[in-house]
């Protein structure tokens, strides 16, 4: 296409472009979703216990964090519905949580749906009774069962991508 013409055209909305503050659920799911903070509030709420945020790499104490309120990752994944093309695909499924900055951490289907990790893995929109703003890291992924919380304490979660690993 002629470059001058292309630049004169109005911007075409890109369905895959991340919308700030919106969490997308993509990949091997039946119903891909784009959830605003308000949409997250419509799901059943779960609350975390207070904890000390600590970096795994340096073991440095960062700060004490008040209880979060948010939605369980498993509730969001169940709402999107896992797409299994072959029998038992879910057992090779991983969920990559990706931040606005490209920082990314995985969960396996096993730990979320078949260990206590899943009972405390949440997407938070509130902390200590006050709403979290985007500048505070909302929507914020928190894995409450992790021994050292910072690696999977992911600020500004933009996407959860369900992937079936190849053997
Ligand atoms: N989006 C995003 N979240 C992230 C990271 C990151 O690089 N990007 N780093 C993690 C790590 S390794 C640490 S130690 C903490 C740092 O927390 P702070 O930036 O709130 O002090 O954020 C965690 N969450
Ligand atoms: Mo860290």
Automatic annotation (TrEMBL):
Residues 22-140 form the Oxidoreductase molybdopterin-binding domain. Signal peptide: none annotated. It comes from the Bacteria. Gene3D superfamilies: Oxidoreductase, molybdopterin-binding domain (3.90.420.10). It holds the Pfam family Oxidored_molyb. Coiled coil: none annotated. This is Oxidoreductase molybdopterin-binding domain-containing protein. It comes from Paraburkholderia caffeinitolerans. The lineage of its organism: Bacteria, Pseudomonadati, Pseudomonadota, Betaproteobacteria, Burkholderiales.
């Amino acid at each position: 296409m002629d470059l001058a013409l292309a630049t004169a055209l109005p911007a075409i909305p890109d369905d895959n472009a991340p919308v700030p503050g919106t969490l997308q659920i993509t990949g091997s799911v039946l119903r891909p979703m784009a959830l605003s903070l308000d949409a997250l509030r419509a799901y059943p709420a779960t609350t975390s216990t207070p904890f000390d945020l600590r970096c795994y790499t340096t073991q440095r104490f960062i700060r004490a964090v008040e209880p979060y309120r948010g939605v369980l990752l498993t509730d969001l994944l169940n709402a999107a519905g896992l797409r299994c093309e072959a029998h038992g695909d879910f057992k090779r499924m991983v969920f990559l949580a990706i931040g606005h900055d490209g920082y990314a951490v995985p969960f396996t289907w096993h730990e979320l749906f078949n260990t206590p990790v899943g009972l405390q893995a949440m997407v938070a929109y509130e902390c200590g009774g006050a709403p979290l703003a985007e500048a505070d890291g909302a929507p914020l992924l928190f894995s409450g069962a992790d021994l050292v919380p910072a690696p999977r304490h992911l600020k500004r979660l933009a996407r959860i991508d369900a992937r079936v690993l190849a053997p």
